[in-house]
Amino acid sequence: PIVVHDCQIIRSSVTSIDKGSNGDPGEKLASFSNQRNTLGTIEKNSSFGIFGTLTEKDLKNHVSDEALPVTLSNHVKEGPAKILTV
């Protein structure tokens, strides 16, 4: 994982998604918003995920009002998938 220090969470917009293939993960491209207000901080990027603190209390993800569940890789099954960008 990429080592991070003193990182900030800011608004961005997804501009394109390149589908991955076997051995190639693909990518999601985004551009930063002109609003540069800080929404939170990132303290750690590890093989278990990105960890930080969200300071913007009224931030909505437009997907769910509840926390989104995650799972371990051994529970993932091959089939149709969705990319949820929050």
Note down, in words, how this protein is organized:
The chain has a domain at 7-59. With 86 residues, the chain is mostly beta strands. It has strands spanning 7-9, 12-18, 27-32, 40-46, 49-54. β2 (12-18) and β3 form a beta hairpin. The model has no long low-confidence stretch (mean pLDDT 86). The strands form two sheets. Strands 1-4-5 form a three-stranded antiparallel β-sheet, with no helix packed on it. The chain has a two-stranded antiparallel ribbon with strand order 2-3.
Describe the structure concisely:
With 86 residues, this protein is mainly beta.
* Overall outline: globular
Low-confidence stretches: none
Give the number of DSSP strands: 5
Strand content: 25-35%
Question: What helical percentage do the residues reach?
Answer: under 10%
- With helices defined by DSSP (H or I, 4 residues minimum), what is the helix count? 0
Strand order, largest beta sheet: 1-4-5
Indicate the mean pLDDT: 86
Query: Which series of helices and strands comes N to C?
Result: EEEEE
- Secondary-structure-based class equals mainly beta
Instruction: Give the termini distance in whole angstroms.
Output: 21 Å
The biggest sheet, with number of strands, parallel, antiparallel or mixed sense and barrel status, is: 3 strands, antiparallel
Q: What radius of gyration results from the CA coordinates?
A: 15 Å
